[in-house]
Write a structure and sequence with these properties.
The protein is of the alpha/beta class and about 725 residues long. It is about 35% helix and about 20% strand. It contains 22 helices and 30 strands. The longest helix has 21 residues. The two termini are about 45 Å apart.
Length: about 725
């Protein structure tokens, strides 16, 4: 018996299969998808690899065939379906198969014993201290005594914890097991489902006419062409209830479901609703959980103990063998695109997974991406809309635009417009809740000298430090570097150091000054800690323990608080000036999403949008609630400018610590790409031209056809990659 193995090495030069022989004693254990230890190259070193094919024979001469050394697990770490998906990702995202398989495998698999193997004392407890005392009198058994005392003090614990606490304890643990003192066992710790800020709706909700129509469209579509279904539903239109109904149907057919959410902050409410409907058959996974909890979620899915998994983009790779539906909530979110290799798009990848498995793909959003709307217009995907809020008596809020230029002209230098101040004051008097949104954490956005104009910048990144008042530090939000607040300017020595701009901390401080009696909560990455940090803050606000919630994008979508009647958008035009082609799209989406938090109950809602660009079409469309107008205008703009989705484009990032080498390589790559079939823009520095001491340049390539563009980019990448890396420069292409 022979196998083909991909090595756990991400280097392009060995991104191919290698044939190995399987020893007789391992033949019954080895399956496709299993990890193996194999010898590779000269010498005695062994490497981890993954079995991708089992064969009865091989074309490799027998004198050159090596044997598999060991099989670390008794289960595959990926299925044949996921192997097929990884091979597709390898081609689509310019990555090695090893990179793609590592992305698909469960987190922490290399050290899986650290996450689900426990140890406990199994003799009568009253004799343990006596046994430890006996062992301590024998020099050869000192470690055993130390182990017993530690366990008596702590109780049952992960095996990894014991090994760290008692160095060199492996032999002693084995001896104690052989003597019947200890038991080492599998312990499946289930992550505690979020229970804070849960929606109190009954499970016996009756679908309205619009919702039932969408259910019927989905049912027909999955039994016919099985195109992806895009649900374009306004905020509060009941998309989550539809997701639950669809999953109920799929589970009744003996199949399984994956629900992707873009933000961890969305999981408290959504998980609560799913747990009430599906109980122990539903599980959640996300990056705030430890490896042990995430691995156990994955293992329960593999063993068929759960039928529904909710999580971020990594949840897409659950080892389900009867996948029936993949639901992508807030499909427009950028967090569905990985920033590390392989830089995969979870929406694209989910569509491929559904095509391979025959599962249904459902995408939902109040503000679908321009790409998805374009595909819907062309009939490539199925479109369904929800134009009314699901709750009786609930209506979309009134949205008012405030021109902050006029506020300055009239002498108001506060970050709060007069309209927003009065609205907050009225809300507090009436006992209603308010949400204030600003898409920037920290106290101030930059620190500058008023004498010479010097701006305090991070030495490792091309960005200004943000001031955090809580610890009095200047912090870089890209590399985490922090320095003490300067007392004098490092350039001219002036004491006129001032703080400009505003973040969540400053908004919180100002609101407390203006309304001293208001109970204020702040929700950003500085205040949220631990796996339950989101749930704790949202739970307090949901129970009415705070009057005002200040936050970043974490509060902008998915939350349903009936007593919130006012939303303030503090800096609506922040995303318009990033230089990205989709700045207007992201601005429209963010305003619409955060506005949707107001008036979710029976009380009317109001939204005040503060901006220095009130005439901007995206801001106007969001305020008017005219989604058709926005998408038509944006698609027409993209057609004229030759931007996605109207034209296939690729973005090639060139990075490295030597700026001159990066520029040389960027120009060389651009020259190689230019042809009659491909137009090239750049190279130019990226919007943030340096992060963590790495200089960043980019090239935009536009092709007349997807295949021609992909071929050109691929040819350039594989031709130049090795020589660029020899200069310390790395190239990262992505089709956008």
């Amino acid at each position: 018996m022979f196998v083909q193995v991909i090595l756990s090495v991400s280097h392009m030069d060995i991104d191919r299969v290698f044939d190995y022989s399987v020893p007789k004693e391992l033949e019954s254990f080895v399956k496709v998808g299993m990890r193996v230890r194999v010898p590779f190259g000269r010498g005695t070193a062994s490497n981890e690899g993954y079995v991708v094919r089992i064969m009865e024979s091989t074309d490799v001469p027998m004198d050159k065939i090596k044997y598999i050394e060991s099989v670390p697990d008794d289960f595959p770490v990926f299925t044949e379906t996921l192997l097929s998906l990884a091979q597709w990702m390898r081609q689509r995202y310019f990555a090695t198969l090893s990179m793609c398989l590592k992305t698909i495998m469960p987190s922490g698999i290399k050290d899986r014993t650290d996450y689900y193997i426990n140890v406990k004392y199994i003799r009568p407890t009253e004799k343990a201290a006596e046994t430890a005392e006996v062992y301590s009198m024998d020099k050869r058994k000192q470690k055993r005594a130390e182990i017993l005392r530690y366990i008596l003090n702590i109780g049952d614990m992960p095996l990894s914890q014991l090994k760290k606490a008692v160095c060199g304890s492996e032999y002693a643990i084995k001896a104690l097991r052989d003597e019947g003192c200890l038991e080492v066992y599998n312990k499946k710790l289930l992550a505690e489902p979020y229970c804070a800020a849960l929606d109190e709706e009954s499970a016996d909700i009756t679908l309205n006419t619009e919702q039932q129509a969408v259910m019927d469209i989905w049912d027909r579509e999955r039994n016919a062409l099985n195109r992806p279904v895009l649900i374009h539903g306004i905020t509060g239109s009941g998309k989550t209830e539809l997701y639950i109904r669809m999953i109920e149907k799929v589970i009744a057919e003996g199949k399984q479901a994956i629900v992707l959410v873009p933000e961890i902050s969305l999981t408290p409410m959504m998980t609560g609703r799913f747990m009430r409907r599906f109980g122990s058959k539903a599980a959640v996974t996300h990056s705030r959980m430890n490896y042990r909890e995430r691995f156990n979620c994955w293992k329960r899915a593999q063993e068929g103990e759960v039928s529904v998994v909710i999580g971020p983009r990594s949840a897409l790779f659950m080892p389900f063998d009867r996948l029936g539906i993949v639901i992508i909530d807030e499909e427009h979110e950028k967090s569905y695109i990985s920033e590390t290799a392989p830089a995969y798009d979870a929406v694209e990848t989910a569509e491929k997974l559904c095509a391979v498995t025959g599962a249904s793909l459902v995408m939902g959003s109040a503000t679908p991406s321009v790409k998805s709307m374009y595909r819907a217009k062309t009939g490539e995907i199925c479109y369904a809309s929800l134009d009314k809020r699901a709750k009786e008596g609930s209506a979309e809020p009134d949205i008012e635009i405030t021109d902050m230029r006029r506020e300055l002209e009239d002498g108001n230098r506060s970050m709060f417009s007069r309209a927003l101040y009065k609205a907050v004051e009225k809300n507090l008097k009436s006992g209603r809740q308010t949400m204030l949104f600003i898409n920037r954490r920290g106290y101030s956005t930059f620190v500058s000298c008023r004498s010479c104009g010097y701006v305090m910048k991070c030495g490792h990144c091309d960005v200004s430090y943000k001031y955090h008042a809580v610890n009095g530090k200047l912090v870089c939000h890209y590399c985490g570097e922090n320095v003490d607040r300067p007392k004098i300017c490092p350039v001219c020595g002036s004491k006129r150091i001032r703080y400009f701009g505003a973040g969540t901390q400053k908004v919180e401080e100002e609101i407390k000054k203006l309304f001293p009696s208001a109970r204020v909560l702040r929700m950003d990455s500085d205040t949220v800690s631990g796996k339950n940090g989101y749930a704790e803050i949202l739970g307090k606000f949901g129970k009415g323990e705070a009057d005002i919630l200040v936050g970043t994008q974490m509060i902008a979508k998915g939350h349903d608080f009936p007593n919130v009647t006012l939303v303030g958008v503090m800096a609506a035009d922040m995303l318009l000036n990033t230089g990205e082609y989709d700045g207007a799209e992201r601005t429209y989406q963010l305003i619409t999403q955060v506005a949707g938090r107001a008036g979710r109950g029976s009380l009317p809602g109001k939204v005040i949008v503060q901006t220095y660009s009130p005439e901007n079409p995206a801001i106007q469309a969001a305020a008017e609630g005219d989604r058709t107008k926005f998408y038509e205008n944006e698609i027409e703009y993209r057609k004229q400018m030759g931007y996605p989705p109207c034209l296939d484009c690729a973005r090639i990032e060139i990075t490295g610590p030597d700026e001159r080498a990066v520029i040389v390589c960027a120009n060389e790559a651009a020259e190689r790409l230019r042809s009659d079939e491909v137009d090239v823009l750049g190279p130019v520095p990226q919007y943030i031209s340096k992060i963590k001491d790495e200089y960043r340049w980019q090239i935009t390539a536009k092709g007349k056809s997807f295949e021609e563009l992909k071929k050109s980019v691929s040819d350039m990448y594989f031709e130049k990659r090795q020589s660029f890396e020899a200069m310390g420069v790395y190239i990262n292409p992505r089709i956008i």
